[in-house]
Design goal:
- With 136 residues, this protein is mainly alpha-helical.
- It has four helices and no strands.
- The longest helix is centred in the N-terminal third of the chain and has 42 residues, at 2-43.
- The model has no long low-confidence stretch (mean pLDDT 84).
- It folds into two domains: 1-43; 46-135.
């Protein structure tokens, strides 16, 4: 009975994850397309571009490499990281607001920051492994 219940719950979780991934990725693609279409149509600028997203992601996670590892307590490192992320988000928002309007800049910034945080969470273990393997 436990095996049957565990199999049922596992299949249900896989179904929910697959369905959510399909629905969310479709909605996300539609939202990105709508933001870029409005930006191109009204301002001839594409707010969501790969170079901007990659630059923001590298900037957000390069901050962690600049902080001293042993000299600061964890709380101070977290505070400085969040402060740097806030400054970078403000700069990107200002840049997007200069090129488009405030509403479009806010919509694009939320997606860009989401991409930056998620890509850093996925690539941080790889960067740690490379840092340990390569002698500096």
């Amino acid at each position: 009975m436990n095996i049957l219940l565990g199999t049922f719950i596992g299949l249900l979780l896989i179904y929910v994850i697959a369905y959510t991934d399909f629905v969310l990725s479709r909605k996300l693609k539609m939202q990105v397309a709508a933001i870029n279409d409005q930006g191109r149509r009204d301002y001839s600028f594409q707010p969501l571009s790969w170079p901007l997203a990659a630059g923001l992601a590298l900037g957000c996670w390069a901050v962690l490499g600049l902080l001293p590892r042993q000299a600061l307590y964890l709380e101070y490192r977290i505070l400085l990281t969040l402060l740097a992320w806030g400054v970078m988000a403000g700069l990107v928002y200002w840049f997007l607001k200069q090129r488009t309007n405030a509403r479009l800049a806010q919509q694009a910034l939320l997606l860009l920051l989401g991409f930056a945080v998620i890509s850093g969470l996925l690539l941080a273990p790889l960067a740690n492994l490379l840092n340990q393997m390569l002698p500096w």
